Each structure stands twice: as C-alpha cells, then as structure tokens.
Amino acid sequence: MKYELTCINCPMGCRITADYDGKEVTNIQGFTCARGKAYAQTEITDPTRMVTALVGVAGTHAPLSVKTQSPIRKPLIFDALNEIRRTVVTPPVHIGDVVIANVCGSGVNVIATENIE
Ligand code: SF4
Q1: What's the pLDDT score for residue 60?
Q2: Are 113 and 95 spatial neighbours (Cβ–Cβ below 8 Å)?
Q3: Which of 17, 47, 67, 82 could form a disulfide bond with 52, CB atoms 3.0-4.6 angstroms apart?
Q4: Model confidence at 1, in pLDDT bands (50, 70, 90)?
Q5: Strand order of the sheet with strand 52-57?
Q6: What's the CATH number for 52-112?
Q7: Model confidence over 33-69: pLDDT tens digits?
Q8: Can you tell me which atom of ligand 1 is nearest the CA of 33?
Q9: Best mutation site among 4, 8, 12 for ligand 1, i.e. most ligand atoms within 8 A of its Cβ?
C-alpha cells in the first residue's frame, strides 16, 4: 500500500511518500531530516498524538488546561480524554505538575499547562 503524508514536526511540512506491506515500511521519500523519516514510520505503523484538554478545578468554574507529556498511541486517545474528563484537581496546581499519572495505561502522564493558585 502506498502512503502520502505531510510531516507535522516543523513548519516545512515535507510531503513524504512510503510503501507499507503490512509488516515493513519501505521506500520512504520526501523527508528532509531524520525526524521526518521516523515520523513516517510511526505514522504508518503506530500513529501517536499529543492530547490537550481541560480538567475541572475544585471550588471554581474555570477549568485547568492540560496536555500529555508526550504523544500517546492514537487508539488510546478516546479513553485518555474520558479519564481526563472525569478528573478534578484541587489548587494550587503549577505548570508541569502531573495531573494524571500513566493516563489509561499509556505510560504517559498528563501535566498542567497553567498555574492555578
Ligand atoms: S522532514 Fe524534517 S524538515 Fe521536513 S517537515 Fe519533517 S521535521 Fe521538518
């Protein structure tokens, strides 16, 4: 199967093509740097995404913005968002604080991206 991708790792947005036989990604072309080649391999075989969301804050109506510390596997995103949606934090919370450890067993933490005193 032939794949056509746009690398999302930097603003250059290189157009990458590759072949995938169900086991191996071959003939990767169009990338400018190693990150693009790695992106194509991951995107085709096991895509991942950063997740950003909001969690509730006890005692206020203003939610706290959070994100995953690193990309998580795409099939886990729905479960991760459900776990995030059920979470309520108690201030103070600071940028980088772990709000959810190992969200839905992904091995990735969800961290705060703003301060709430
Ligand atoms: S392949 Fe490299 S240069 Fe091209 S968009 Fe991806 S990160 Fe940027």
Answers
A1: 76
A2: yes
A3: 67
A4: very high
A5: 88-89, 52-57, 64-68, 110-112, 98-100
A6: 3.10.530.10
A7: 999 999 999 999 999 999 999 999 998 778 999 999 9
A8: 2
A9: 12
Residue 70 Cα distances to 52, 105, 108, 109, angstroms: 11, 14, 7, 8
Say if residues 101 and 87 touch (Cβ distance below 8 Å): no
Which ligand 1 atom is nearest residue 6's CA?
5
Ligand 1 pocket, Cβ-based, cut-off 6 angstroms: 7, 9-10, 12-14, 31-33, 35-36
Rounded to two decimals, the pTM is: 0.80
* Residue nearest to ligand 1 atom 3, measured at CA: 32
CA dist 64 and 56 (Å) reads 6
CA pair distance 78, 91, nearest whole angstrom: 26
User: Atom 7, ligand 1: which residue's CA is nearest?
Assistant: 9
The domain limits of the chain are: 2-45, 52-112
Length of the chain: 117
Place of tokens 């509730």: 56
52-57 vs 88-89, strand pairing mode: parallel
